[in-house]
Amino acid sequence: MQLSIEPLIYIGIFVGVIMLVNGVYLLVFGKSISLNARVNRRLTMLESGTSREDVLAKLRKELDQHKGSVSLPFYQMIADKAQRGNIAFSPNQLMLIMLGAMVVAFLLLTLLTGASLPLRAMVSVGMGIGGVFFWVNNKAKKRIAMFEEQLPDAVELMVRSLRVGHPFVSAINTVSREMSDPIASELGIIADEAAYGRDVAEAIQAMAERLGIQDLRFLAVAVGIQQTSGGNLAEILQGLANVIRARFKLFRKVKAITAEAKWSGNFLSIFPILALIGINVMQPDYYSEVMGTPVFIPACAAVAVMLAMNMIIMRMLVNIKV
Hints:
- The chain is mainly alpha-helical.
- Among the domains are: 146-249, Receptor-associated Protein (Up-down Bundle), CATH 1.20.81; 258-322.
- The chain has helices at 6-38, 41-47, 52-64, 73-84, 91-112, 117-163, 168-178, 183-195, 200-211, 214-229, 233-257, 259-282, 296-318.
- Helix 1 packs antiparallel against helix 5 and helix 6 (117-163) crosses helix 7.
- The longest helix is centred in the middle third of the chain and has 47 residues, at 117-163.
- The termini are far apart.
């Protein structure tokens, strides 16, 4: 029995591409990343002697550098995730990393597999783009999840600051000093922009649209209504904090309840692929007798469509909005 390990090699190369992208990122920005994980980056920059204007300009440039910078179709899929994840790579650097990942994948495919040149080129392009997208998407998910977890505490801190008589901008500035990133630097940017004349509700709304967080939109609406019609902003924000915390608690409960269904769906979706890889590894000529029949290609296409439908339906069944 002849064994073929090429499917495992393809998987290993793709994982290696993701690790390569992460390794380059840590090599270039490792020091700043380690600081961001422990402290408030904006305050660190201010304490180092950088002026408030320069800090604001630098942070704004980092946050907006991926927005509409490159018009290539495949890059647009990554740009939104890179903006939410606050990826430090510039668009040009990110595309260079993507190109480098393609080259590395192509070389590894050439050395480790016997695939034809067109197949190697196509797979290396897919691995380069897919590896960068997977890495950026993972970074964005982690950052947004951390932001959403910090938001109720930040709003309650604003409430306490407002109740002792501070204006709303000062309350935001207090949050930017007392809390850690990512929410501290984001709200610090809003406080700085408000100091230079930008409307606070408009700045919060822009941040909500950039990050795609619904609770921030509620905060922007609450602040905007209070600015136009008046009212007790502390009480409004206290109610909002309670709602956010209740939604977060409900989301965690739903996540726990649907965890088994999600794992079952993921297993049912990936098992046919794993079975196909296993059959190909243990017995490469398993399908040799039927590959030449006229129904083989249509049957493979039908199975692929049904597998894709299974993945979509399974995701829809367990994707409960809170």
